[in-house]
Amino acid sequence: MASQTQGIQQLLAAEKRAAEKINEARKRKLQRTKQAKQEAQAEVEKYKQQREQEFKAFEQQYLGTKEDIESKIRKDTEDQINGMKQSVAANKQAVIVRLLQLVCDIKPELHHNLVLQKKLHGQFAA
């Protein structure tokens, strides 16, 4: 009976050691997973920064700096405003003459609805 108890004790001790080894292995695995995740995150961040720098270089090469774009837009706007001012100056007198003609040269005519009504009824409706 003592040998059975001793055998059971050995089995229990072996089971306990196996459980401890499994727990240690799980802890190591968890630690390796966390480390791998941190390394992957650092690599992603490094790649992101590299791509951002490449994009900024590309942007400056093909689009120019923000100030360049701003000055180009400002110049284009000023050119358009100057074109409009020249168009106004060139057509101002003609527009004024046409407006005066329309306002001053009044030709009294009957309203077209009245003319239609007269045609339909042969006379004016009261």
TrEMBL record:
PANTHER family: V-TYPE PROTON ATPASE SUBUNIT G, VACUOLAR ATP SYNTHASE SUBUNIT G. Transmembrane segments: none annotated. Residues 26-35 have a biased composition (Basic residues). Belongs to the V-ATPase G subunit family. One of its GO terms (biological process) is synaptic vesicle lumen acidification. Residues 26-45 are annotated as: Disordered. One of its GO terms (molecular function) is proton-transporting ATPase activity, rotational mechanism. Subunit of the V1 complex of vacuolar(H+)-ATPase (V-ATPase), a multisubunit enzyme composed of a peripheral complex (V1) that hydrolyzes ATP and a membrane integral complex (V0) that translocates protons. V-ATPase is responsible for acidifying and maintaining the pH of intracellular compartments and in some cell types, is targeted to the plasma membrane, where it is responsible for acidifying the extracellular environment. It comes from Caenorhabditis angaria. It comes from the Eukaryota. Pfam families: V-ATPase_G. GO terms for cellular component: presynapse; vacuolar proton-transporting V-type ATPase, V1 domain. This is V-type proton ATPase subunit G. Keywords: Hydrogen ion transport, Ion transport, Transport. V-ATPase is a heteromultimeric enzyme made up of two complexes: the ATP-hydrolytic V1 complex and the proton translocation V0 complex.
